[in-house]
Amino acid sequence: MEWIKDTFGTHKPIIAMCHFRALPGDPYFESEGGMERVVELARQDLNGLQDGGVDAVMFSNEFSLPYLTKVRPETVASMARIIGELKSDIKIPYGVNVLWDPIASIDLAVATGAKFIREIMTGVYASDFGLWNTNVGETIRHKTELGAKDLKMLFNIVPEASKYLADRDIVDIAKSTVFNNRPDALCVSGLTAGAETDSAVLSRVKKAVPETVVFCNTGCTVDTIERQLSIADGAVVGTTFKIDGKFDNLVDQKRVQAFMDKVKSVRA
Fold first, then answer.
1. pLDDT below 50 — which residues of the chain?
2. What end-to-end distance do the CA atoms of the chain give, in Å?
3. Which fold would CATH assign to domain 2-263?
4. In this record, what's one Pfam family (predicted)?
5. Closest CA to 237 of 214, 261, 260
6. What is the pLDDT of residue 1?
7. Do 151 and 106 contact (CB within 8 A), yes or no?
């Protein structure tokens, strides 16, 4: 678990989500403002997160709804442009997440110098996006072929809006994922972005794989973060940092600061 301190500079890190607005090719892309507006809003959110004191940031195409499980080239190109334009503003470690495509996430990470990715890399699911399959062997080989040996891989083992086709217990999933794939971390989620992760499920996963980093992946708030961090090795946080705690809104720096003040007291 030493990589956590090496990567984030602290224990129990908070990885904040910087959600990109809809991109070219997405159904809700706002062509009037164009990419310039997307970059402007991403910069605003990034600065609010950084100035609010988060430990790291993860850039994702969160508003590319409805999501694809194999994204198109324009999505990765657009995200690379945004991160490139933000490079001079980024002061903290960062990762990327191209929803829901691990190969594209690796490509973007390598192109932009990201330190980690988070994705669905294992399993087969019945989901809102149709039959959702993965190929972790191909994914890890692609990472190796690109020479990204230091890129950290955060495996989301509770995909949002979906369910394993086989009736498998979360403990079995955690154990087999660790044995077969050697993930740098496991991420445990709620139903959707902003939905609270079940603490009991989180606890069962951590107890099943105590030597593996486990992150609480969704739904942390200033009222729940102490409980979640008493179990997890860190958290990925997005919706609660936004104005009124609503998914569609932009980041509210005051909410970020209040949350991080709570986190610092927990660490102490």
1. none
2. 19
3. TIM Barrel (3.20.20)
4. BtpA
5. 260
6. 77
7. yes
